[in-house]
């Protein structure tokens, strides 16, 4: 009884707190202003794939809506709608989402102006409107966004001057205004990266600016007073004598070197988790920084009972933060392979900027002298690999239609990584165990970018082959060279996993010889026995035409010659029913005269590979 009273009392306090804290978001009639703002945004956009279907004007809580992220206190903190073929305009109502920290609307077909109301978003850290059809001028008051860290407006049709107010924003990391129709002079922007290439009125032949370089220009220094030293404060005057011919250059080298050293030390001090003495609000871009202590507590000291999976990059634990949020904590191994703190920071930033409905979103990180940890949202339905054998009421959890939808989701995520990210990201380990399922069984690609995060050699060559035998492309096995076509091969094998319900490599009946799925599928397809491929758990409940199409897409994607494989965008179109017949016919006619030459089996590549590859498989949901 006492416990019930306490809970009732606590609930009453929560209600009072909600009433008190919601003054700015609720009208006198109880309407949530954030809901009104989001519905205004929805009404001004054309949504061809109906991804905003569950944005309900009658709802009082938008935090459960798709593409919406909320802060722990219940306010909308992120609006993520990239690469969804959205058109229309950006509603001025976006300015009423005053707790927004991130706006990601890139790679759509949105037109019109950037609403001036956006300058009301004082907490905004990331604004990405790149690759749209926006026109008119950039609002001058954008410089009032004091917390702005990333600003991407590139590849639009924006005109007018670059706002001089940007020079007032001190925390900028990236400003990309390239490929617009901007004009005028360049303000002194303090961002580490400032891109303006592709603006003909700024970068034309008569321009004073060399747009092939990344601005800002090298730092300017106080003018020399003509006596061989610079003036300082009233108490200290330091005179440094140099030879007249090289004194200025030498001074610049010293000062720039000191600045770089100071910046390196500053990044180290901010980034490292030293004795847990830090401001919990310190962030890297829009990522939250966690202490090792709180992650250790969240996972019950990394208890083995909380292990969700083990993979080539480390161990994943289920954790519960102090505010009750359930997360997945990836404890990276090989942390000593990371090429320095600044490099690690840069790669984590890039991974965090890859935001798509079919990509696992990075929430935060932790770094100590001995540990690297990444924090992701917890995926309640686990991985595709872990659910292929599951049943509910005698029926497979992943029926045929759900498997087809998963394939489409994975393809869309990989298209984004390969063709819409800047720079592009190669996954290098596309397989069912690395595809997670959210509460709606929507496919979410996990572990992307981690291969590069732990291996900082040239992006197209690595001696450390990462992946799982049976999924690794022949050229990667034999040479260690990877590209986006390596992922296409992995996706082709993943399609076969979805069709068959089996692993890409399994032991034969004798238990002493590995059978490779790809070789088996090619033989059955050649013999016209595709029905033998289908997962028996489906009990013949599948679409025969779709089966043939998926197998054809898989075989096109797993061609031994990477140049003959389609791009992921072509793969996606073929899965959606566009262009497969032509591509398949072209492939057959090209290979027919040289069939014997291309009759080599995939298992031959595996056996001939001189590279030692450890086949890692995640177990259970992550």
What this model shows, in words?
By secondary structure, this protein is α/β, with parallel strands linked by helices. It has 3 domains: 20-203, Ribonuclease Inhibitor (Leucine-rich repeat, LRR (right-handed beta-alpha superhelix)), CATH 3.80.10.10; 283-377, Phosphorylase Kinase, domain 1; 384-608, Transferase(Phosphotransferase), domain 1 (Orthogonal Bundle). The chain has 16 helices and 26 strands. It has a 7-stranded mixed β-sheet with strand order 2-3-5-7-9-11-13, with no helix packed on it. The protein has a 7-stranded mixed β-sheet with strand order 14-15-19-20-18-17-16. A two-stranded antiparallel sheet has the order 1-4. The longest helix is centred in the middle third of the chain and has 25 residues, at 247-271. 37% of the residues are buried.
